[in-house]
Structure formats: structure tokens, C-alpha cells
Amino acid sequence: MARRTKADAQATRSGLLDAAEQLFEARGVSRTSLNDIAVAAGATRGAIYWHFKDKADLFNAMMERATLPMEQLLTGTAPDAPPATVAQVGEAMLEALHRIATDASLRRVMQIAIHRVEYVEELGAVQARHLQMHRQWLARNRSALERAFAERPWPAAVPPDMAALGLQVLVEGLLQSWLLDPQAYDLVQAARASIGTYLRGLGLEVWPDQHAA
Questions:
Q1: Contact call for residues 123 and 29 (beta carbons, < 8 A)
Q2: Per-residue pLDDT reduced to its tens digit, 14-68
Q3: Alpha carbon of 212 to those of 197, 205, 208, 209: distances in Å?
């Protein structure tokens, strides 16, 4: 029997992740077994356990493959990322949403993460990863808002932590609604208008040209 090469192993791993994307989207995560994924990928259960310790590990690998660049954009987790301004936070959100709207694989995994996963016990690691990313994103937003509020001569209407939470809930809600019906509105245009209006309500002008229009 010929020895498997590193390229063969990588191809098998990619095939398993591709199959997981398709099945998780079609059936939901809890109703898809590792054996289902192996069969769809033309692989064995042994191949799955060679690459992934369990379903949560496979799910997280699937998410990271598609979303890691976007997550770094939102959370500033890149090693050399400087502190973000509110304008940079807003632009990062728009860029992340643009990627979701235009990249079929990324859109699929976001659909799975938002509408096709149940945080049951076997997927505890999935919930932990989601929560970690949520907190990192929230912390970056709060830090940017704190600096923006500190630069103004008048006090903020709401504390930075509540302002950051409101901004995050706004964007997450837009995305969740759009994934239910992508034809309902242009995701990026709706986000730009909504984020701009929200920040102006906090006394922060991020896109003055939008306000003038």
C-alpha cells in the first residue's frame, strides 16, 4: 500500500470540511453525524478521528477555515494590530459584512453558525469559541468608543460598555435578519446607514458624507 503524503492528508481534511459545510447547512449540526460526513466525503470514520477529536473540533475547524481573516478584522487579534478608532471599527464591520455577502463559503458557515447549530453538551467547545470571539469583538468596540468619548468636551450619554453592546447587537441583528432573506436588502448599504445613524446618536460622526446625503 502506498504511503499517504502530507498533500493526501490535507486533501482528505479539506474534503471532510467541505462535506461538513454542506451537511450542516442542509440538516443542521445536531442532526449530522461524523459518519454522515465521512460518507459524504468518501472517507472513513477513522479518517475523521485522525483529523478531528470530535464534532465540535471539526465544527471549529470548519469555522476557522472560512472566518479567521474576518474575525481578525473585527477583533484586532492580529499580533501587530494597533488600537482601533471608531471609524476603523465601523469600516471593519462593513468589510466583514461585504465578505459575508460576496463569499459563498463564508456566507454558508455564518448561516450554519447562526441558524443551524444548537449549543448542546457535545458542542460546548463551539459555544466557547463563539463566546470568545464575541467578547473580543465587544472589547475592541468598547475601547474605541472610550477613546472617542474621552476626546469630546462633553460627557457621553451612555457608558462605553453599553454603547459598544448596542453597536454589536445592531450589526449582529442585521446579519441574522439578512441571512434569513438575503434578497430583502443590501447588507452593506443597510449596515452603513444603520451604524452611521447609531453612532450619530452617540454624538460621533463617522461618515459625514452620508449625513450630508
A1: yes
A2: 999 999 999 999 999 989 999 999 999 999 989 999 999 999 999 999 999 999 8
A3: 12, 11, 6, 5
For cell 476626546, the residue is 151
Could you tell me the sign of the dihedral formed by the alpha carbons of 146, 160, 140, 207, in that order?
A: negative
Domains of the chain: 7-52 (1.10.10.60), 54-212 (1.10.357.10)
pLDDT digits (tens, 9 = 90+) for 28-43: 998 999 999 999 999 9
AA identity, residue 136? Q
pTM metric for this prediction: 0.87
Q: Is the pLDDT of residue 2 over 50?
A: no
In the numeric block, which cell numbers belong to residue 174?
Answer: 442585521
